[in-house]
Design a protein that fits this description.
The chain is mainly α and 447 residues long. The protein is 60% helix and 3% strand. A hairpin with a 5-residue loop joins β3 and β4 (39-40).
Length: 447
Amino acid sequence: MSCLMVERCGEISFDSPDQNAKCVRMLGDARVRGQTGVLSERRGSYPFIDFRLLNNTTLSGEIGTKKKVKRLLSFQRYFHASRLLRGIVPQASLYLLDEDYLGQARHMLSKVGMWDFDIFLFDRLTNGNSLVTLLCHLFNVHGLIHHFQLDMVTLHRFLVMVQEDYHSQNPYHNAVHAADVTQAMHCYLREPKLANFLTPSDIMLGLLAAAAHDVDHPGVNQPFLIKTKHHLASLYQNVSVLENHHWRSTVGMLRESRLLAHLPKEVTQDIEQQLGSLILATDINRQNEFLIRLKSHLDNQDLRLEDAQDRHFMLQIALKCADICNPCRLWDLSKQWSERVCEEFYRQGDLEQKFELEISPLCNQQKDTIPSIQIGFMTYIVEPLFERWAQFTGDTPLSENMLNHLRRNKAKWRSLLHKQHSSTRSNDHSGQVTGSQEQTLNEEETP
């Protein structure tokens, strides 16, 4: 039996209230000290999101220390930190793994490069630690620990920070999704067309960006944050709000953990900026921008992967593919992800309805069915991107496998949608008598 207990701490001071908003991007997972010296320790994941925080407006003259701290904390840790401010210490995280489960998890890791990798099973075998376990393994497989002279304890501590900063109560945007995207990214990094040119720095950036690309996701989308006037929407001026937050949170955790502190300052700064470029590329609103640029490169055949700039662009494309690859998985896995993301949409819709806000597109459970959402997503978002990716890789077995799954899954969703429509029409006609049926009944009743 093995046991892992994690404790995290750090410290950031603020010289003036004007610096508070700017410092959100560097908080990561740290202790935050206000001007009065009140210390708030931020640790772990807390499973509640308060709507009042999402629609927080602070009146002038009422910005006390607690309000500063509340505004600066990440979504999931607001209540956790408020308990600590009141002196209530939560129970520490405790992870227990049976040796049999560890053995099965190790066996799965030996097949981590297979596209049929079941991340849900792997998460169960690792007792909810799929992201940490997967990243430690991949960093070792790719030789990153040796190349960058990383300390294993520090690496593990950083990865635990990242994993705990995901909201476990989110049906979709949680640490399992991050692990799934990371496993997909690993598969893409092994594609010969790309792998032959990648440097250790490229590989580390790709894996880190995949692991942290949705960190501290609140389970609601950008339009929701904008229309509820959330402080992050104001901070990032309504542009790539969530993606900017994911990036800044990741940088904060990197600095707090001191994972890369032994590297030259210019190297760490470059890593932080490139991480931002990769994570910001996952903004779905920029889909056409990247698709047009990729199409242009492929049509002109002017991609030069010896050039760092072109390699970075293809890493962005690879991350975008990994982020939305669920429709390209085996049906059983793909269906689970589809149901999870739609459940998250519906929860947002219920929240909007509760607070008398306009229900966002795809978030109305009464009108937006899972099959219709998935068919639209596959048709307009997934297919165009993965067809271009297959064009880039040269129709490798992996690309062909993904496109085959995509076509089969889309056909299954179409079949389910047809059944839903047939069932709806049947229900509409049940209990009703048609004109011909009424005439027949009348004739039978006539003596």
